[in-house]
Structures are given as structure tokens and as C-alpha cells.
Design brief:
Blueprint lengths: L8 E4 L4 E7 L5 E3 L9 E2 L2 E3 L4 E4 L1 H9 L4 E2 L13 E3 L2 E3 L1 H18 L7 E6 L5 H13 L3 E7 H10 L8 E7 L4 E8 L6 E11 L4 H19 L10 H18 L4 E8 L2 E8 H28 L7 E5 L6 H15 L3 E3 L5 H27 L8 H15 L3 H8 L1 E6 L3 E8 L2 E8 L4 E2 L1 E8 L7 E9 L5 E3 L4 E9 L9 E8 L5 E7 L4 E4 L10 H12 L2 E2 L1
Parallel strand pairs: 1-10, 6-30, 10-11, 12-17, 14-19, 17-18
Antiparallel strand pairs: 1-2, 2-3, 2-4, 5-6, 5-7, 8-9, 12-13, 13-14, 15-16, 19-22, 20-21, 20-24, 21-25, 23-27, 24-26, 27-28, 28-29
Helix pairs in contact: 1-6, 2-3, 4-9, 5-6, 5-7, 9-10
The structure holds adenosine monophosphate (AMP).
Length: about 550
């Protein structure tokens, strides 16, 4: 048995908090406690003047005194191609900031034992498109990690839940309200006793909706009450330090309201004071529309599930720190309790995603190992072997990895099936109007591909140019105004084709949500490699520079 088998880590890179987990030799996922002795680490980065970078609790506290040197909610910027943070004459893109958070988590994990922290699965909201996923992966690369998978958060939560025996045969809805994002997903867990099959049926979400928005409503309320009580014309939110302070307190008060009926907050600014009471009913009233937005998406995903034959929901899982707010559970019970016949249950609220990611990573690595040994034992894939040969493979893998036999047996039977979380297409003309023709439709099981044949514009054309878009529409044609441009795809041609020569363009979406484009010159039967990547994604050269820049910083 190897003394230090390579361990895979699951990382929940959250908008407000992040967590890291691994799977122990008994197949159980464990969260790693950070050096502050907490199980979650605030996703906040503080750039100290001496070049040190502090990530976590102290960084969050520093936001009050040094707001210009602190970055938080960076995950919300992953889709913004223009966003960057400047400090001490340097600028950092969202993936570079995220890399610092990952470095802190990896550093904490390394401190716990003799294992190197290299192989990781990082999670992202199901709602993330190609750009945000690539950037999340690159954040890992910049942090010096080997990202074996970018996994959707609800899939991770479902894996954490679905690998339990009593989950078999159930259709589950995962309502995941985190600090900055909301995802709602219907998952179907197969009931074949010889297999562990977890399939994503459909998923919806909003990556600009999370606990932070609930905090903001409290902040606005406190500021307005301050103005009324202090008869002040000053908007205290214009003062950055005060605004940070208020936001910090608002989050604390929100959490208090999860246990108490009412909070009282003193607000003072420039000598003026106010005392604001916030009863839970008022908080619910201030945020009712936010909850309504989550319900609209929940209704939508349930409708979509029906069209896919999933009519019965057996369990309603609450995931994400924000589901601790009392009204979430209460209102979900009110709204769905009778119609679905299920009561929402909290399931590993803060830890399900990191643990599920660790399990997915472990399964990925172990299945790879099982197949590698199966090849040497029986000259084929594991499933094609005799029972005797399978047993030998499991024993050998157990010996090599230190993982127990029964864990490997379950692993060899586990399969995850995911769906496309976005539609992807190209700009086309319909009735003279520009539209997006979707080649991959949202909610289709992945990996998937879709093709269309284009004719070359004129004789001897030397390239075909396409503009690639992404949207949330489930139809073949989507409005250009509801689609987001990902970038330009250029297919170089030989230049010896007649006009209208057929070129088949295929969009391929892999099971990690990564898009590639392939062309086929049908006249010559020749494959054309497209020069395409979502604009805003760093080039290999830029990543190298980012790694050097990141290595200059000490991360604590
Ligand atoms: P996550 O992204 O899943 O870590 O969720 C973080 C969010 O959950 C933040 O907005 C927190 O303020 C919120 N949160 C954590 N604990 C509680 C609680 N007890 N009551 C209300 N919200 C909470």
C-alpha cells in the first residue's frame, strides 16, 4: 500500500464563503477546518500594504477599515469581461482574485497532513456559462492546482445526497440559495440496486441573487430609517467605510433573525444617531420579492421536469447558507408542501457542495484507476470483465490506493448524468432580422452536439466567420436581445472552394459545460479546427503571467 496516496479535494468556491473537503479511506467526505478553526472561509481578499494577501475572516473584518484594499463577492464578477481590481499599481482580474482564495484553501488543507494539494474539483453555479467556467478553471491553474473537473454546485449537492442508500429511486429538487447565487435543480436518482445513477433532469438559476441581496435590503432599510430619525439629508451609504460597516452588521442581523424574532441596530454617522428595530415580519416584507424570484424559477424547473416525465418529487433539499433564513423554509412549505407533498429539509446546508465535489473527484480518480487496472487484468473495460477478474481489480486498486474494497465496489457502479445549463448558438438571419440559431439546447443531456451546414459566401472564400452566443431559451431560435455574445469563431478554409460549398459546423458541449467548435469541409471531407474561445478567457501566455504575479504574493 502506498503511504501517501494522492488525495483529491473538493472545493466549493462560494460567493461569500468557500469550503474544502476530501474523502477519507472509508468513503466519507470530510470538511477541512481552516487555520481560524472554521469550516468555511469567507471568500474575501485583503491586499496589505507590504504585499501580503490575507484571505478569509480577517480580510472580511478589514473591509470596515480598509475598503479600498478589500475584494469580496468576486464570483459575481466572473461574467464581467471588463471588471478588474486595482491596488498598489497592479490590477487583478476575477480569476486572479479567485486564485488567491483557492490558494488559501489549499494552504489550509496542506497544513492538515502529509498530502500535497494538487488534484481538485471546483464547483460553480449550474447557471455559469462557458466564460465563467473557463475562468473558474483558470483560477485553479493560477493557484497551481490541477483542476480535474468543474462541477455544478447542485450536482455536487445531489451527489452528496444521492450516494446514500435511502436516496435510491427518488426525484429530488435541490433549492440552493447561497451568498450570491441561486440554483434550483431537479435530480433523479436511479433505483437499480447494482448501479448508482444520478441524473440531472433540469436546472434553472440566477447568479445575481443570493444572501447578499437580502443583506442589501436591510442596509437600505437602515439607511432610510437613519435619514428619517436623524432628520439628516446625508445618505450614509455614500461614505464607503460606513456602508461597509452597515453591510457587515446587516449580515449579522440577518443571521440573528434566523433565531430571534427581532433585532435592534444602532446606526450613527457624523454625530447623528438612530435606533432601528427590525422585526422578522418587516424583514420578510422587505425581501418578499427576492423570495418570489426564487419561486418563479422553482415553478419553471418543476414545469420543465414534467415535460421530461418527472412528475413526482420525493424530496425537497435546502442547500446554501441562505436557506437558514426562517422564511425560506416556511414559505416553501406553504407554497409547495401540499402540491408536491414534501416538506423541505436542510441537508448539509454549508457543506453539501464541497463534500459532493470531493466525492465526485474521488470517484473520477478511482474510476480511472479501476479502468487502468481492468485493462491489465482482463484486457478490457471493467464492466466487460468476469466477476473473478473484477474482484482482482478491486483488490489491486485497494492495495494501491488504500481505499477500502466496498468503497471501490460502489464507486465502480456510480454514474453521473448532467444536462446543458445554457443554449449555445450562432447569429443568423430570419426574415431579414438577426436572431440566434441555437445548435445546443438547454437541458439536453451532455455530452451533446448540434450541427448546421453553412454555404461559403463566394468562390475561393478563405474563411467562415461566425458569432457565437449563449442564452437561456429552450427553443431553436432565440432573440438576439436575450442572448449574450461569447465571441467570434473563425474557420479557415483552403480558398479553393466554389461559392455555397457546404461547411458543416458542429458545436460540442462536454459534461463539464465546456464548448468546442468543429468544422467539416464536406467537399474535401476535411476537418477544420475553429479558432474559438469565449472572449474574456485568458490566453496561455496571460495565465503564465498571472501565475508569476500570484507567486509574488504571500497568501495567508
Ligand atoms: P453559502 O454561499 O452557501 O456559503 O451561503 C452564504 C450565505 O448564507 C451568506 O449570505 C450568509 O449570510 C448566509 N447565511 C449563513 N448563515 C445564515 C443564517 N444562520 N441565517 C441566514 N443566512 C445565513
Amino acid at each position: 500500500m502506498s503511504t501517501t496516496p494522492r488525495r483529491v479535494y473538493g472545493i466549493d468556491l462560494g460567493t461569500t464563503y468557500s469550503a474544502i473537503a476530501f474523502v477519507n479511506e472509508h468513503g466519507k467526505a470530510e470538511i477541512i477546518t481552516n487555520s481560524d478553526n472554521d469550516r468555511v472561509t469567507p471568500s474575501v481578499v485583503f491586499f496589505e500594504e507590504d504585499g501580503n494577501t490575507i484571505v478569509g475572516k480577517i480580510a472580511k473584518e478589514s473591509a470596515k477599515t480598509d475598503p479600498n484594499r478589500v475584494v469580496d463577492f468576486v464570483k459575481r464578477q466572473m461574467s464581467d469581461k471588463e471588471w478588474s481590481f486595482s491596488v498598489d499599481g497592479k490590477t487583478y482580474k476575477p480569476e486572479e482574485i479567485s486564485a488567491l482564495i483557492l490558494k488559501r484553501l489549499a494552504g489550509d488543507a496542506k497544513k492538515t497532513g502529509e498530502h500535497d494539494v494538487v488534484d481538485v474539483v471546483i464547483t460553480c453555479p449550474a447557471y455559469f456559462g462557458d466564460l465563467e467556467r473557463q475562468r473558474t478553471r483558470q483560477a485553479g491553474e493560477i493557484a497551481g492546482l490541477n483542476v480535474i473537473e468543474i462541477l455544478d454546485e447542485p450536482v455536487a449537492a445531489a451527489i452528496n445526497y444521492g450516494l446514500n442508500e435511502d436516496a435510491k429511486g427518488k426525484n429530488v429538487i435541490v433549492y440552493d440559495l447561497g451568498g450570491g447565487t441561486f440554483d434550483v435543480t431537479v435530480v433523479s436518482i436511479g433505483n437499480d440496486p447494482d448501479k448508482n445513477e444520478i441524473s440531472i433532469v433540469c436546472t434553472e438559476g440566477n447568479h445575481q441573487l443570493g444572501g447578499k441581496d437580502w443583506d442589501d435590503r436591510i442596509v437600505t432599510h437602515y439607511a432610510a430609517e437613519f435619514q428619517t430619525q436623524a432628520s439628516s439629508s446625508t445618505n450614509l451609504l455614500e461614505d464607503q467605510e460606513t456602508a461597509y460597516d452597515l453591510r457587515f452588521n446587516a449580515e449579522t442581523d440577518k443571521k440573528t433573525l434566523s433565531n430571534k424574532e427581532k433585532v435592534t441596530r444602532k446606526v450613527s454617522f457624523e454625530g447623528d444617531k438612530a435606533v432601528v428595530e427590525l422585526p422578522r415580519e418587516k424583514f420578510d416584507e422587505l425581501t418578499a420579492d427576492l423570495l418570489g424570484q426564487t419561486f418563479a424559477l422553482t415553478d419553471k424547473v418543476l414545469e420543465e421536469a414534467k415535460t421530461k416525465g418527472v412528475t413526482k418529487i420525493h424530496a425537497f433539499l435546502l442547500v446554501g447558507g441562505s436557506t437558514r433564513m426562517r422564511q425560506i423554509k416556511e414559505k416553501i412549505t406553504e407554497r409547495y408542501g401540499t402540491t408536491l407533498g414534501v416538506t423541505p429539509v436542510e441537508f448539509d446546508v454549508d457543506e453539501a457542495v464541497a463534500k459532493g465535489a470531493a466525492k465526485a473527484g474521488e470517484i473520477h480518480i478511482l474510476k480511472g484507476k479501476i479502468e487502468e487496472i481492468a485493462e491489465t487484468v482482463g484486457g478490457g473495460d471493467f464492466n466487460s470483465l468476469t466477476d473473478e477478474q473484477k474482484k482482482t481489480v478491486i483488490e489491486k486498486v485497494a492495495e494501491e490506493t488504500g481505499v477500502e474494497d466496498y468503497v471501490l465496489e460502489t464507486t465502480s457502479k456510480t454514474e453521473f448524468k448532467k444536462v446543458a445549463t445554457k443554449s449555445y448558438g450562432i447569429r443568423a438571419l430570419k426574415g431579414g432580422q438577426p436572431i440566434v440559431r441555437n445548435l445546443i439546447i438547454k437541458q439536453t443531456p451532455v455530452p451533446t452536439e448540434g450541427s448546421q451546414i453553412f454555404g461559403t459566401a463566394g468562390p475561393d472564400a478563405d474563411e467562415i466567420d461566425l458569432v457565437v452566443f449563449m442564452n437561456n431559451e429552450s427553443e431553436a431560435d432565440a432573440g438576439i436581445e436575450v442572448s449574450e455574445e461569447l465571441g467570434q469563431a473563425v474557420f479557415p478554409l483552403d480558398g479553393n472552394l466554389p461559392a455555397k460549398a457546404p461547411i458543416q459546423i458542429t458545436f460540442k458541449l462536454d459534461d463539464q459545460g465546456s464548448l468546442t467548435l468543429v468544422g467539416l469541409d464536406q467537399t474535401h471531407g476535411k476537418t477544420i479546427t475553429a479558432n474559438f474561445k469565449s472572449s474574456g478567457v485568458m490566453s496561455a501566455e496571460e495565465i503564465k503571467v498571472a501565475i508569476e504575479k500570484s507567486n509574488e504574493l504571500v497568501v495567508e
